[in-house]
Design a protein that fits this description.
The chain is an alpha/beta fold. Helix content is about 15%, strand content about 30%. A hairpin with a 4-residue loop joins strand 21 (about 195-200) and strand 22. The chain binds coenzyme A.
Length: about 220
């Protein structure tokens, strides 16, 4: 009986989310490794972070100085050597770093928050991206910058479904609208409207994604 039900179950289609496709599959080494990564993340970080959603994976950590300041949604993956830094641990207004469901960050993400960095859902972050809500204060008449704990801080917000290209830098006070792209090596100093492609240093608008005349066609699938 159960065998025939199994037979009737529809297989994964192109519309099935990637994370759900494995459900009907046999257990493989890849699936086991993924399960272990999830379990390890929950054992190591689950009780320390502000919140941790289901099936989220944190790979090798470089710096996570105050886990209480970090809230992660479900199905998040952050690859090796990430830095999630609370710049003002004395200020206990948590969470300061919020990462939404389904967001994926490649290697060496650095996210610094003195007060607030919000990353939306399903954001793709390429390698070596810096997101910061603060600048150090260099005071010619005061403490050396290495010992000066003051920051100039403005909150950062990245909307849902954005793609941040390799080596992108997102500076304090920036809000990036949903469904936007930040080009490789770009330095974003100003707000980005939704559905925009920005690039360069400082980042400038290249095109709009909601303009049918400018929307790139998907590449043909080569078999
Ligand atoms: C931003 C990006 C998506 C734009 O692609 P596109 O829409 O095809 O843009 P085009 O190549 O037509 O370039 C349009 C203009 O923007 C400029 N431009 C494109 N990307 C740029 C970048 N990263 N920095 C500076 N200028 C850039 C181009 O020089 C061109 O300028 P011009 O009109 O004066 O000649 C792409 O260039 C990019 O940076 N991709 C990121 C890749 C990446 O980081 N991958 C990591 C793997 S997750």
């Amino acid at each position: 009986m159960s065998g025939s039900r199994e037979h009737e179950r529809p297989g994964p289609s192109d519309e099935t989310p990637t994370y759900a496709r494995g459900r009907g599959r046999r257990w493989s080494l890849g699936v086991l490794i993924r399960q272990w990564e999830i379990v390890r993340t929950h054992l190591v970080w689950g009780w320390r972070l502000h919140s941790l959603g289901k099936r989220t994976v944190l790979c090798r950590c470089c710096v996570l100085n105050n886990p209480r300041a970090v809230a992660l949604g479900s199905y998040v993956k952050i690859h090796n050597d990430f830095i999630l830094a609370d710049l003002c641990p004395a200020d206990r207004e948590y969470p300061k770093i919020v990462i939404g469901d389904g967001t994926m960050a490649m290697f060496r993400l650095q996210c610094n928050a003195a007060r607030s960095v919000r990353i939306g859902r399903n954001v793709l972050i390429a390698s070596n991206v810096l997101i910061t809500d603060s600048d150090h204060v260099v005071d010619p008449d005061g403490l050396p910058v290495t010992r000066n704990a003051k920051f100039i801080t403005r909150p950062v917000c990245i909307g849902d479904n954005c793609w941040l290209g390799q080596n992108a830098v997102i500076l304090k006070g920036v809000a990036i609208g949903h469904d936007s792209i930040v080009g490789a090596n770009s330095v974003v100093t100003r707000d980005v409207p939704p559905c925009s492609v920005v690039a360069g240093n400082p980042a400038r608008l290249i095109r709009r994604l909601d303009d049918p005349a400018c929307t790139a066609q998907p590449l043909p699938v080569l078999i």
